[in-house]
Specification:
Number of strands: 26
Strand content: 35-45%
CATH architecture: 6 Propeller
Order of helices and strands: HEEEEEEEEEEEEEEEEEEEEEEEEEE
CATH superfamily: TolB, C-terminal domain
Strand order of the largest sheet: 1-26-25-24
CATH class: Mainly Beta
Oligomer: single chain
CATH topology: Neuraminidase
Shape: globular
Largest sheet: 4 strands, antiparallel
Structural class: mainly beta
């Protein structure tokens, strides 16, 4: 963990949430948390999670420091009911020595194929029946910082940082939207795949740490919601934009603001509530937002516990049984406490608002 990340983690620890639902509760009580599954090491650092039928899938490792580990990134397949690890799918085609390589988030199409973001490969597609992997996009481009002298595509972030594709979601037309956390950019990939195209950029999506992050289409399919984990003032945001061909800067609307916590992945429940994963120690857990953007509840760690049961969680998905399944990313503690690489089961008495899963070529 860099000194800069330690600074933000310590700042987050200093702020205590006013609305916390303790995790220790009777059976089936709102906010109850249990460990459903362990994410294997040496990979660890789980990020994306997606549920389909009686299986759920977790991608990783989403971390820096993989340059010389010689291990491919992976997708893990689990049983929803028991949390048993059923299969490990190794990512093909990565340069595993001399370059960072990581899987982040994933989603399904209507044919049940799994789409995975990888910082080296771009987006790849997995046929889960045959375990065959194919390319869906090339790597996401490294954009130069914009300046008065810029010509061509550029990024409103500074300094010059590589692409970091983080989260993804389809629209009904089969377009795939992808957040780029280091380049203040949301990409759009046309139905069927191919080169990513810039859909929206704004300096409000930039950050010295992780900017634009989690992303989902609204239940009525009219807007895209996304998080900015930390802006340059250390504040987190949930924003939305209209789902149009070319949104403008004036279209950006703030849905909720977090003065601490670091919003990461998001998911809509069938209730209409938006579930926001908070990733920074001291505030980590789940923030549940009403449709008007006000906070309905905060599910977090009990008392003064900083890393149990939530240890820098990253993303969530619903299991169809009233629970949210949450990946414990453990970015600050995982090297010392690898048993914290987990999938947690959190009772929220809600199920998923159906994700868009189009039939794409």
């Amino acid at each position: 963990m860099t000194p800069f990340l330690k600074l933000f983690a310590l700042a987050a620890v200093a702020v205590v949430s006013a609305v916390v639902v303790p995790f220790q509760a009777a059976a089936a009580e709102y906010g109850e948390v249990s460990v459903l599954a362990q994410v294997p090491i040496p990979n660890g650092f789980p990020e994306g999670i997606a549920v389909r039928g009686n299986r759920f899938y977790v991608a990783g490792p989403a971390t820096l420091g993989t340059v010389f580990n010689g291990r491919p990134s992976r997708v893990f397949e689990y049983d929803v009911a028991t949390g048993a690890l059923l299969r490990t799918l190794e990512t093909q085609g990565e340069q595993v020595f001399g370059a960072e390589h990581a899987n982040s988030c994933l989603t399904f199409d209507g044919a049940g194929r799994l789409y995975v973001l990888n910082n080296q490969l771009g987006t790849f597609r997995l046929d889960l029946g045959s375990a065959v992997q194919s390319s869906y996009t090339p790597p996401y481009p490294n954009l130069r910082p914009c300046s008065p002298f810029s010509s061509g595509p550029c990024s409103p972030s500074f300094p010059n940082l590589p692409a970091l594709p983080n989260d993804l979601a389809f629209d009904d037309a089969g377009n795939l939207y992808v957040t780029d956390s280091l380049q203040a950019t949301i990409w759009r990939v046309p139905a069927g795949g191919g080169a990513p195209q810039i859909w929206f950029q704004d300096s409000r999506l930039a950050s010295p740490y992780v900017g634009v992050n989690g992303l989902r289409i609204s239940p009525d399919r009219s807007r895209i919601f996304f998080t900015v984990t930390l802006d340059f003032l250390g504040i987190g945001h949930v924003y939305s934009l209209p789902l149009v061909v070319a949104p403008q800067a004036s279209d950006l609307v703030e849905f909720h603001r977090y003065f601490a916590g670091g919003p990461d992945g998001i998911a809509f429940g069938a209730s209409g509530k938006l579930y926001v994963v908070l990733a920074l120690p001291g505030q980590n857990g789940i923030s549940v937002l009403n449709p008007d953007g006000s906070e309905f509840a905060r599910i977090g760690n009990p008392g003064l516990s900083l890393i149990s049961p939530f240890d820098s969680p990253a993303n969530l998905a619903f299991d169809g049984l009233g629970n949210a399944l949450v990946t414990n990313h453990a970015f600050a503690t995982g090297l010392l406490l690898p048993n914290h690489f987990q999938v947690l089961k959190v009772f929220v008495d809600d199920v998923a608002s159906p994700l868009v899963e189009p039939l794409v070529p």
